[in-house]
C-alpha cells in the first residue's frame, strides 16, 4: 500500500508540493532578512518550545498505546554484533546532519557569541535538547508505526508514506495527531532552513556589501528555482529532462 501511495505521488499533481515548499521558504527568507536578534533568535525562542510541547503531547498519547514496549525494544535493544562500519558511519552522518556540522552554521552563529560566553555550557544546551527531542520523536513515531502495522522504513519514506498511512488508520484521532505532528515538523524544518541560509546571507553581506534584505531575496530566488526543479524531478513526466 505504501508503494502504491508513492507511485501516486510520482504521477500526481505538483501543485501541493510547490505550495508547501513556498510556504516554508517564504517565512524562512523573511526571518533571515530580519537578522539574528530580530529574526532568527525570536523565531527559535517561540518555535522550539512549541515543538517540544507538541512532541511531549504526542509522546503522552503514544504511551497509551499497546505497541510502545515494542517500539522501545526496536529502538534500544542493544545487539553489539550488528555494529559495523556502516552503522558507525550512519551514526556519524546523523550527528553531522543534526548539528549542521560542516556547512558553516555553527561558525556563523558563533560570530555573534559574546566573548565571555561559556562555550561548553552553550554546546550542552544545543546537544542535549537535540538528543532528547530525537529520542522522544523516535519513540513516538515507531509506537504509531507498530501499533498500526505500517512499514518500518527510514528517512522520507517513514515520515511521508508510512506515518500518513498510519494516521489514516487511526480515524478521527489520527487526523488530530497528524495535524500536530506535521505542524511540529514544519516548525523543525523552518528553524533548520533558517540556520542553513544564514551563513550564505552573511557571506554576501560581508563579501559583497549586500544589505541583509537584498542578500535574503537573492538567496530566496535561487533556492526557490532550484527547489522547484527538484520537485519537478520527482515526477515521472519531468524526471527524464532533469535527471543527470
UniProtKB/TrEMBL annotation:
Keywords associated with the record: Membrane, Transmembrane, Transmembrane helix, Transport
InterPro entries, A to Z: Na/ntran_symport, SNS_sf
Coiled coil feature spans: none
Transmembrane segments annotated in the record for this chain: 14-33, 45-64, 91-112, 124-146, 180-205, 217-234
Compartment(s) of residence: Membrane
Highest taxon in the source lineage: Bacteria
Cellular compartments per GO CC: membrane
The keyword Transcription is annotated on this UniProt entry: no
Membrane topology classification: Multi-pass membrane protein
Chief place of localization: membrane
Protein name in UniProt: Sodium-dependent transporter
Organism from which the protein derives: Helicobacter pylori
